[in-house]
Amino acid sequence: MKKQQSIILAISALIAASAGIWMGQQNPDTQLPRIKPAAIQGAIYPAAKTINDFSLVNQHSEKITKDNFIDHWSLIFVGYTHCPDICPTTMTVMNQVSEFMQQQKIQPPRIVFLSIDPLRDTSESLKSYVTYFNKDFIGLTGSVEEVTKLSKQLNAVFRKSPGASGEISNDDYLMDHSSALMLINPQGNLQSILTAPHTPGNIIESIIKSQAYYKGTH
Questions:
Q1: Phi, psi of 149 (to 5 degrees)
Q2: Does position 17 have pLDDT exceeding 80, yes or no?
Q3: With a threshold of 0.70, does the pTM exceed it?
Q4: In a 10 Å sphere around its CB, with 0-12 CB exposed, 13-18 middle and 19+ buried, how is residue 112 labelled?
Q5: Geometric angle at alpha carbon 132, from 128 and 138, rounded to 5°
Q6: Any binding-site annotation on 83?
Q7: Cα 134 vs. chain centroid, distance in angstroms?
């Protein structure tokens, strides 16, 4: 309970500070310097990195392109459904982030799980996987080429590694991949990279600071 209260107080302070900075940017009479990216666990891009268009499908087999990321914030995590540890742990934390922000009447970003194992992760398997953590989470898959194209733009790296047999086979392999979270701004571009270790408090703080910077520069 004390930990939750401390997170609430920290978020309230962040919101107040962010609002003050943003209002200062709108008032030409203030003496505040132009806003600079705040320090987060990771980095806020001074100028968001442009994401070029891509074509994937979600867990409902619906086509998803960059247009689907316009006009709202999104938080992307790359992983795969056969992941034994990092993925389920991170997905659980992101569910906590989403639920906590909603409880505090703060609009959470859309949570997106981008599979970097499209050969095994079909829309059907993604549906059962992402909805296990949260019914509103979005799962993305597609061709190896399209997944790779988007992953590179997100600065996410991945590769196959030996499975239980000690070798890489069609069905027996693991995927080494980035553990960072990628925050996408309402223009569909990469605004921030959130690095591990991930906790609800660190993620929420990074989101609020990133959104404040975006508001102050647009």
A1: -60, -45
A2: no
A3: yes
A4: buried
A5: 70
A6: yes
A7: 15
